[in-house]
Amino acid sequence: MSTRTLILLRHAKAEPEGDHGDADRPLAARGRRQCGLIGPQLAGAVGAVDLVLVSSALRTTQTYELIAPDLEVRAHETRAEIYDAGPRDLLSLLREVDPEAGTVLVVGHEPTMSGTASLLHDARDDLAKQVSLGISTASACVLDVPGAWAELDRSTAHLRQILRPGE
């Protein structure tokens, strides 16, 4: 079985909550710029993406819409449950991914993106320390998943790299 790739992307910088609720916060101008930087990095790091799972929050759907032109995406789904998901909830969702999917991108929120990367990572190294502190907006954790999606659990993947806009 070939190694799968999981990318956990935190949405780009959003406007403060203001008059609208948290789920309806749009991207800030800085967030739009971040998308222009991280999209090409993702494309270079992972190539084609079989499935993108996007939180239903406005800032995550806008992040996906702005990076999508840089990626070769075969399918994408907006999933409301990602908005409130914790790492274990996200793992449950990922275990249901089609076994044929080789590369999956999740566009979601903190602290779930870094928490999930930390939970899955199989080593205590510098990258583990970095994700334990959280990831900044428009940053992505790229993990190698040697087993099936259905077998995802603690320490069953390897955090290969963290991509940050502008790096």
Automatic annotation (TrEMBL):
UniProt keyword annotations, A-Z: Hydrolase
SUPFAM superfamilies hit by this protein: Phosphoglycerate mutase-like (SSF53254)
Pfam families recorded: His_Phos_1 (PF00300)
Protein name according to UniProt: SixA phosphatase family protein
Gene3D superfamilies in the cross-refs: Phosphoglycerate mutase-like (3.40.50.1240)
UniProt keyword NAD present: no
InterPro entries documented for this protein: His_Pase_superF_clade-1, His_PPase_superfam, Mito_Ser/Thr_phosphatase
Species: Georgenia deserti
Keyword Hydrolase: yes
